[in-house]
Design brief:
Layout (H helix, E strand, L loop, with lengths): L6 H14 L1 H22 L17 H38 L6 H39 L1 H21 L3 H6 L6 H11 L4 H27 L6 H44 L1
């Protein structure tokens, strides 16, 4: 029988792991999450958000699509570079938060670079699966609209379920050092057995808290725009970057805590089977 996730315990362990490694965590999180966001917001403010879309009767699908395509063609490489950097940072942070050998910052980053191909391979596999499911549903919708709408809804439910089942891929790579992408996918699917709703509930609670905090911080930072556009841009970039960095760190620590609980329970279950 699979172990049940204790959300309170997972939260306490997440906070404790951050506190125990705060100095090294701050360095890695700052380099891989804060700095890239600051550079994007301050050096290329136009790339930080899509262009404003025309409203009302002026808006049409072709115009919106053309504007978004032109914007994406100019900035995609920035987002791709940041995504790769943050993937390395994610793997390094998980290693710092969980590795009992107490790696240095350099060793954790080195592991992140080493594990990056495995992580990217898992994301490609997932993207292909989601793309095939969504593409099939859209094709059916074009032929049989009513059936297609139902299939699209089912595809959305399946994608959400798959996201929960595959939520422990990164810990499987960073903590268990599983370098086979297919094995990492299977490991996450197996670890989450019997806990899908609890995992969803846990991360939904975190997400709601993050949204509330973001709104409050956003309102506070918006006030600085009264001091001038440049001041508003700098304060907003730094403030939003710090909030994003803290949120990512907390989410990863929570993910590691969930993995710790479920992997321990999984090992005990296998022992008694």
């Amino acid at each position: 029988m699979a172990a049940k996730l204790d959300m309170g315990r997972a939260w306490n362990e997440a906070v404790a792991s951050i506190s125990a490694n705060r100095d090294m965590v701050l360095i890695v999180a700052g380099v891989f999450f804060l700095l890239p966001n600051l550079m994007l917001s301050m050096l290329a403010p136009g790339a930080a958000q899509p262009p404003a879309m025309p409203a009302g009767a002026e808006a049409n699908l072709e115009q919106v699509t053309a504007q978004l395509s032109a914007w994406f063609a100019e900035v995609w490489w920035m987002y791709a570079a940041i995504a790769v950097l943050q993937a390395v940072g994610t793997l390094a942070l998980l290693a710092l938060l969980t590795d009992r050998d107490r790696p240095t910052v350099g060793e954790a980053i080195g592991f992140g670079v080493k594990a990056l191909p495995t992580y990217l391979a898992t994301q490609i596999i997932i993207s292909l699966g989601v793309g095939l499911a969504g593409g099939a549903a859209i094709m059916v919708a074009q032929v049989v609209p009513l059936l297609g709408v139902l299939l699209v809804l089912l595809a959305m439910v399946f994608v959400l379920y798959a996201m929960i089942k595959l939520s422990l891929i990164t810990p499987a790579i960073a903590i268990e050092k599983e370098m086979n992408p297919v094995a990492a996918l299977k490991r996450s699917w197996r670890l989450t057995k019997g806990n899908s709703l609890l995992i969803l509930g846990f991360f939904l609670l975190l997400l709601v808290a993050f949204v509330v905090i973001s709104i409050v911080v956003g309102l506070v930072l918006a006030a600085f725009s009264l001091l001038g556009d440049d001041v508003g841009l700098i304060v907003s970039a730094v403030g939003n970057g710090l909030v994003s960095m803290v949120m990512v760190t907390v989410m990863l620590a929570a993910l590691a805590a969930v993995h710790r609980q479920l992997s321990a329970g999984n090992q005990m279950a296998q022992t008694f089977e």
